[in-house]
Amino acid sequence: MLEFQDYLRVPSSVQLLLELGEQLKIQKAQLLTGTGLTLTRLSDVNCVVTPNEEVSVIDNLIDLLSTNTAGLGLIAGFRHQLTTYGILGYALMSSATGLDAMNLVQRYLALTYTFVKISFYQDNGQCLIHFIEPVDFTPELQQFVLERARQPLQESSMTFMRVLFN
């Protein structure tokens, strides 16, 4: 089974992190320090980003906000809309049920920018989502990636609930 570090990514997630940094009064150059990324490269339509490059940007963000990182992943996650995920996002929006959408997420997890493993199963009529963070990340980085991964799924779940009950 391939892991997140095996997949190249489009720069959308890094660009969202840079926007978040700007909102928090952090210069883009500070977030890109030591990552191997440049603004010129990120603006190239053919650009791909390695997971390690994205992790370096997240690490820089955490380091620059060292005393105040609780909830930072949730804030970053709010910036990830379903359309951020490209064709997968559109497939999720057109899923007939939440179960269909979660099956797509499991199958195409590499298209989501996540650094966590996500499993989904049903038990006694309940749908359960389980997130597993990478063990080789620092506790702060684990918290960030878990929060960021959970937030869009929580938002999507609320959207499905509104559709079902309105």
Question: What does the model show?
Answer:
This protein has 166 residues and is mainly alpha-helical. It has one domain (4-165): H-NOX domain (Alpha-Beta Complex), CATH 3.90.1520. Helices cover 52% and strands 8% of the residues. A two-stranded antiparallel sheet has the order 1-2. Strand 1 and strand 2 form a beta hairpin. The longest helix is centred in the last third of the chain and has 27 residues, at 139-165. The chain is globular, with a radius of gyration of 16 Å. It starts with 11 loop residues before the first helix and ends with a helix.
- Using the CA coordinates, give the radius of gyration: 16 Å
- Count of DSSP-assigned helices: 8
| CATH fold call | H-NOX domain
Let me know the largest β-sheet: 2 strands, antiparallel
In spatial order, strands of the major sheet run 1-2
Number of strands: 2
Strand content: 5-15%
What is the count of distinct domains? 1
Which oligomeric form is depicted? single chain
Poorly predicted segments: 160-166
Distance between the termini: 40 Å
- Helix and strand content put the structural class at mainly alpha
Q: Provide the succession of SSEs.
A: HHHHHHHEEH
Q: Class in CATH?
A: Alpha Beta
Domain HTH-type transcriptional regulator AraC-type N-terminal: 29-149
Keywords: DNA-binding
Pfam families: Arabinose_bd
Protein name: AraC family transcriptional regulator ligand-binding domain-containing protein
